[in-house]
Design brief:
The chain is an alpha/beta fold. The protein is globular. The strands form 3 sheets. The chain has a 4-stranded mixed sheet, with no helix packed on it. Strands 4, 6, 7 and 8 form a 4-stranded mixed sheet that branches. It has 2 domains: 65 residues, Adenylosuccinate Synthetase, Chain A, domain 1 (3-Layer(aba) Sandwich); 195 residues, Alpha-Beta Complex (Adenylosuccinate Synthetase, Chain A, domain 3), CATH 3.90.170.10. A hairpin with a 5-residue loop joins strand 6 and strand 7.
């Protein structure tokens, strides 16, 4: 019976906080599905940023939150809004990713696209994250007809031809934007059994470094000020199972250096 587990969550949370306990919250939706910050009308009925922990669970705003942001090594979307970095459906990589990208509940096929660092940086700026986790790096390895380079959207070009890191949520404004891509070499090796960053193919290391650098640069609108406190990339997922991760990811400064060298 579930009746014994029903209680006033606000009171339980207050008790645990007063006892110095740690509470883990999980948001199952991305920042850009937030009902206020997301791409309307393809949004949820609630907030999806760490701030929702305070609102939904009656956690005092004086209580600290340690936020971990999770992102894929490429982009996916469902809904009707404009997808600036969408990969053409007949592209070899789109066909590969299309076989694994389905909504967990709805079973609906997701659209797939190149990694959009502008969106990721915007989420980092407005939602915040102490650490980042990068998932599904393993599915990008070259296979079959997929033999090309990877792309990272590092900025947008607006209707005036200027580079921008702004993220308008109106499709009428966004349809005038063009993604500015950086390219990265692909890799042929299956990386699912690798457990150390240094053992990844150099191209995979460089892709992660470029992706990280583009994200944090976008978060600061094109510049990295000296005072910037950058989130650590804590884990890289290289397979669908819990233990298939790389946990010795270099510190932000080393990733940025690797991105510049590549």
């Amino acid at each position: 019976m579930l009746s014994g587990s029903i209680c006033n969550v606000a009171d339980l949370t207050a008790t645990l906080v007063s006892e110095g306990k740690h509470i883990i919250y999980e948001h199952g939706q991305g920042v850009l599905l937030d009902k206020r910050l997301g791409y309307s009308p393809s949004v949820t009925a609630s907030h999806t940023t760490p701030a929702e922990v305070y609102h939904a669970n009656s956690v005092p705003v004086t209580s600290p939150i340690y936020a971990v942001g999770v992102m894929k090594a490429y982009d996916t979307k469902v809904g009707s809004h404009l997808f600036l970095t969408q990969i053409e459906p007949d592209h070899p990589l789109a066909k590969i990713l299309g076989k694994i990208e389905f909504g967990t509940t709805t079973g609906r096929s997701r659209m797939v696209g190149w990694f959009d660092a502008v969106e990721a940086g915007w989420a980092l700026t407005h939602a915040g994250a102490n650490e980042l986790i990068l998932n599904k790096l393993d599915v990008l390895n070259r296979q079959g007809d997929w033999q090309g380079p990877l792309k990272i959207c590092a900025a947008y070009e607006d209707s005036n031809g200027s580079q921008t890191y702004s993220l308008p949520t109106s499709d009428d404004v966004r349809e005038k934007l063009k993604p500015i891509y950086e390219e990265a070499d692909g890799w042929d090796e299956d990386i699912s059994a690798i457990r150390s960053f240094s053992c990844l193919p150099l191209a995979a290391q460089e892709y992660v470094a470029k992706l990280y650098r583009a994200t944090v640069v976008a978060a600061y609108s094109g510049e990295l000020p000296l005072y910037a406190k950058l989130p650590k990339l804590r884990f890289i997922g290289v397979g669908p199972n819990p233990g298939e991760i790389i946990a010795d990811v270099p510190e932000p400064s080393r990733l940025l250096a690797l991105a510049k060298l590549s």
